Amino acid sequence: MCRLSATIGHPFEYTAAMNATLRLTYKVARRIVIGVTGGTILLLGIVMLVTPGPALIVIPVGLAILGLEFAWARLWLKRIRRRISAGLANNRARDAERQRGN
Asked: How many CB atoms are closer than 10 A to CB 55?
């Protein structure tokens, strides 16, 4: 019995393979949790486009959560930010033009 435990090792002894497995499991679990959470919030935002609710706030929040793990979500979020910035700049320019005209 003593010889067997010496070859197997202590039952709670972590090996490099176990550490790699735990890291992989953590990464997969994190990716799943972020995907489900961000996807749910994004879908709620899309539903809010046709129902009452703050869709224009919820959609970027969902993309930001998804962007923690997925590159495509980060790209979409950048595009949305650029469009919002351009729209705000156009609105400011229009307002300034109106004030100059009055």
From this structure: 16
